[in-house]
Model the fold of this input.
Amino acid sequence: MQASRTPPGVGVMPLTTEPTKRYGTPLGPIYTIIYSVIIFLLVLVGIYYVLTGKGSRVDFGWFFLATSPYMWALTGVGLAISLSVVGAAWGIYTTGVSINGGGVKAPRIKTKNLISIIFCEAVAIYGIIMAIVISTNISEVNMSTLTNIEKIQDNYSAGFKMFGAGLTVGICNLACGICVGIVGSGAALADAADSTLFVKILIIEIFGSAIGLFGLIVSILQTTGAGMSSD
Amino acid sequence: MSDLPEASGVQPVSSNELLEYYLNPLMQQSSESAVLFLQDKLHVDDFTKFADVYSLDSSGGAFKNIKRFMEEHFSLELPQIENPLQAIDKLKSSFAGALHTATSLSDVEKLDLAPNKKFLLIVELTPSARVGDKEQAITLNDAFVGSICRHLQKRGIKYTAMFTGKSTAENEANEVETFSGRHLLETAETKNGTFMNVSGSIFVFLRDVTVHLQAEDTHIIINATVTEESADKSDAGNSTAIVQLDLSGVSQNTTGDYTVQILFNTTHEGDRWTIQNILLSVNGPASGAFNGTLENARLQTGDIDLVVPILYSYHCSSMKLYVDNIRDESLKSFKHTFVELDGFQMQPFNIQGNAFFNAQDCVGFFTRGIWMGIFTSIILLSILMFGTLMVLNLSTPDRFDDPKGKTIVIAQTED
Done:
């Protein structure tokens, strides 16, 4: 999962990239076996249910209504902040590594390229803002004493909306962070080679940063109607 | 007494061994009588706790007199005996001389004990429960033992004394020899259920109905009987069906007959049928705060999934339905009233082949809590998995590694 941009074999010395001795069990086949077993079991259970006429027992509607709306809401809040932070962190580490490396030979790039870091950090800020905004909609309701069907539906839909909002902003910011990070890393190295390139490359970064903002806007639209209330 | 076998603490001495190896040899020595001091509960731990065993020159703590007697004369300690009472009973029955029992010193003084006549004296010591504190009881009994022994000494009687308990600790069951046997033919009686067939279009199966009626402070338990005609007033239809169970019941704490009616309103739309609501009516003699009628009380169905796929029957092994006093304010006085249906199965629509079809059970595969836990666990475990994979992919910089080049030598500098 590391972004490796330099082709192997190019460098000061020709090196073997594979270790000369492989020991232990190889990981690739193990992952394949685990995934296949899990998928096989799921398919087997599914086919059993379908072929014995019990397909209706696999009831997702019951699952969505039986699980508490708080699980969905709080998972949404958690995903909002955590996925955004993952994106920001990934971006910062990608850019930061390049700035550190390029800054050895061209120290002038240090200050200008902090803009890339700031773009990545903004993604994390979007995440925490949305987490706080989403969590303000959560309030304590005793679902078992509600009698008004409208209120019950509102509470359930609030839970799902908050989950959707959190997931939206989280995944958008994750992608945005990675994008800005890789572009920023390239910008730092280009700037180190030729300082006129930086401003043009910054435009690419701005486009990349806009997609995080899109996620934020859509997430706000999703949470506007969400409200938990009792009778 | 020196020829008696030593007992190890590991294997408890069984009552037969006690009789054979210890008591009988003692009794057979000609001129010695025996005095048995029976404490109700005695355990080795009592000696550890109350006999002051950890100081070098202790006098025996609560067991002062007993310790002194054991040290001054021949003594033998048997740490674990199984069921000494049995051995003592056998000894009592086979004893040749006089048999006396006593509970206090005055009883012993009244006894006619001659030095040359063999006798067996059984002294019952005060139970520790009567005194309260175990240590106090032991101290009292020890003083009592001391006084009796001194009294017998004064009379010049040669005797062997035995201090034992009837059972060990408080919470250990007595070893009672009974043969419980195998009760193969006596199985728990399972009540058979009643199958009700309403004109071939509604099938109901029910084993038992109990109504716990709670009106303010009055608590009436009604056991209703289910007959094959109980569901006869049900109304079958294509899109709605009302399953009506009319049961008569008696209560344990009041006299008179009660009629219990349970109504299931079911509707059938498309590919499913639903139990919309369940109503309870109870009529009977008034008693206490219950005025005799409970009319059409809605029952709370809460968590139960009452939407059943078409062709399926609904089954619930034990269905406990409380009165819905949240949605129906008029039932507040009947709070905590519930009906318990045992072994209930119902199919009001689309009966095929004159039998119940597959049942949807009120107990699901996983509970909602398990599903919520699985969902959250999957999220967290996938986070862990991705994190671990990323960390495993980290590598140290190896661009400038040259396995065949010079190794770096860092000179040691004097600091």
Notes: DSSP finds seven helices and no strands in chain A.
